[in-house]
Design goal:
The structure is a single chain. The chain is of the alpha/beta class. It has nine helices and eight strands. Strand 4 (282-287) and strand 5 (294-303) form a beta hairpin. Helix 1 (17-145) packs antiparallel against helix 2, helix 1 packs across helix 6 (369-382) and helix 1 (17-145) crosses helix 7. The protein is rod-shaped and about 260 Å long.
């Protein structure tokens, strides 16, 4: 006996050792169930958080890479356009400036030349007028002085003419010098302009060649990507998508997944008798370090446009069968590797989560086959410790549950046998009772028949001719005639009826 005191009311309770053991076992079971539920919930929360974090990081990295690539392409194109536009604008401005300078210099030189010519002409006209005035004066003097002054006049005229000629020659030399200076300035300006134009043209040529080089590089890059896409498509068409995915996995199997299972699904399974037996393409399974706890399982389905007999089939048309195959084989995830709908922006963006249609299901292009396995395996390995602990606790509970199930099964079987035996015993007792009742009824019938036979025999013993003919004159007369005839003919072979013989 054990005594337990209530901590609230201080009341004492007496229990047998078996009751105490039962209470302790019940408390341990509740504590074990509670710890198992908490461990399972924590593991599921950690797994969901790790998976959500991985998906967010992958999505953010993919979006950042797309934005950087688009921004780089736009920036490069914008820089090229701005550089080319700026270079053309600078060249046009320099050419316009040089042409303006050349026009100004030409106009200045022409104005200087015209000004020099006009000044020289005015000087010549002024000098000629002065000379004419002097000649007039000299002629007037000559007229007054006559022939004596003629020689002096002629000498003065010759000196004036020679001076005028020298001055004109000097002016012509100055004009020629101005022309030479103007021509030299124009030539220098032309040479300088041509040098600047050549420099600008060289800059434009360099920028154009640089732009053409960049365009060629971009074209080569686009051609490389296009060629790679063609090679990939050719490879897909020439081999098969399944073979391609298997080769890609085998490339990293030894380093990344040495103990993983990745084989073709060859067993067609039906959910029930009415269901058609189906199978997937490949199954991937990853176990923990203990080799028994399964961390990750994926059912793969590979589809290309050439695999479909019906053209125009969509990715969504394969999801229902994939989910059914995943359920039949007990896989956690389902992945459709597809090249269908090649123009779809939704499926071309990368890993597409379609869990809004079917749980834990993804649709990917072939190039995301390895990244998806790596991502899911990484998330599963983060929860490996919790899963192993949960598996250990579950195994302990399974052992206890198995023992309890066996005991309950034995009890149920024994009780079923006893129940069936009771049913058969009740049926046998009922049959015996029915037989007894039937025999009793038959006995009653026989007793009744026997009694009737006794009454009939008694009545038969009591019957006689006298009793039969009593009150019946006709029958009496007939019997009398019969007796009379019998007396009269005693030798007749027919035996007469004696009234005394009929009783």
């Amino acid at each position: 006996m054990a005594t337990i005191t209530c901590p609230h009311c201080n009341k004492q309770f007496d229990f047998d050792d078996s009751e105490v053991s039962e209470i302790l076992e019940h408390a341990r079971a509740e504590a074990r169930d509670h710890a198992l539920a908490e461990a399972k919930a924590a593991s599921e929360r950690e797994l969901a958080a790790a998976r959500a974090t991985a998906e967010r990081e992958l999505k953010a990295a993919r979006e950042a890479a797309d934005r950087e690539r688009e921004a780089a392409v736009r920036q490069a194109a914008s820089d090229e356009r701005l550089a080319q536009t700026k270079a053309q604008q600078d060249a046009a401005a320099q050419i316009a400036q040089l042409q303006s300078q050349l026009a100004q210099e030409r106009a200045s030189a022409k104005a200087s030349e015209e000004l020099a010519r006009a000044q020289a002409q005015r000087d010549l006209e002024a000098q000629t007028a002065e000379l004419k005035r002097q000649v007039a004066q000299l002629q007037a003097q000559a007229q007054s002085q006559a022939e004596a002054a003629q020689a002096k006049l002629d000498l003065a005229v010759r000196e004036a003419v020679s001076a005028s000629e020298r001055h004109v020659t000097e002016l012509e030399q100055q004009i020629r010098a101005k022309d030479l200076e103007r021509e030299s300035a124009v030539a220098n300006a032309r040479v300088e302009l041509e040098a600047k134009v050549n420099s600008v043209r060289e800059d434009l040529d360099r920028q154009r060649s640089e732009t053409e080089r960049r365009i060629r590089e971009k074209d080569e890059e686009i051609g490389f990507l296009r060629d790679m896409k063609v090679r990939l498509s050719t490879k897909m068409l020439g081999e098969s998508l399944e073979r391609h995915c298997e080769d890609e996995f085998n490339k990293i199997r030894a380093t990344a997944f040495p103990d993983a299972y990745f084989e073709k699904d060859n067993d067609a399974v039906a959910a029930d008798e009415e269901d058609r037996a189906t199978k997937g393409d490949y199954i991937f399974r990853l176990n923990a370090k203990d080799g028994q706890t399964e961390l990750l399982s994926i059912m793969f389905e590979m589809k290309t446009q050439q695999d479909d007999v019906k053209k125009g089939k969509t990715n969504e048309s394969h999801l229902k069968k994939l989910d059914a195959d995943r359920t039949k084989k007990g896989c956690e995830y389902a992945v459709l590797v597809s090249t269908l709908e090649p123009e779809s922006d939704l499926y071309n963006q990368g890993i597409v989560d379609v869990s809004y249609r079917y749980p834990k299901m993804y649709v990917i292009r072939p190039q995301f086959f390895i990244p998806l396995i790596t991502m899911l395996a990484g998330a599963a390995r983060k929860s490996e410790g919790a899963l192993m602990e949960l598996s250990s606790i579950r195994q302990q509970n399974i052992d206890v549950t198995t023992f309890e199930e066996k005991l309950l099964k034995f009890q149920e079987g024994f009780a079923g046998n006893v129940l069936r035996a009771d049913k058969h015993l009740d049926a046998a007792i009922k049959d015996i009772d029915a037989i007894i009742n039937k025999l009793n009824a038959t006995r009653k019938e026989l007793v009744t028949i026997q009694r009737q036979f006794g009454l009939a025999d008694k009545k038969l013993q009591d019957i006689s001719v006298k009793k039969l003919t009593r009150g019946n004159d006709t029958m009496k007369a007939l019997f009398e005639e019969a007796r009379s005839a019998k007396v009269e003919d005693p030798d007749d072979g027919d035996e007469g009826l004696s009234p005394d013989s009929i009783e």
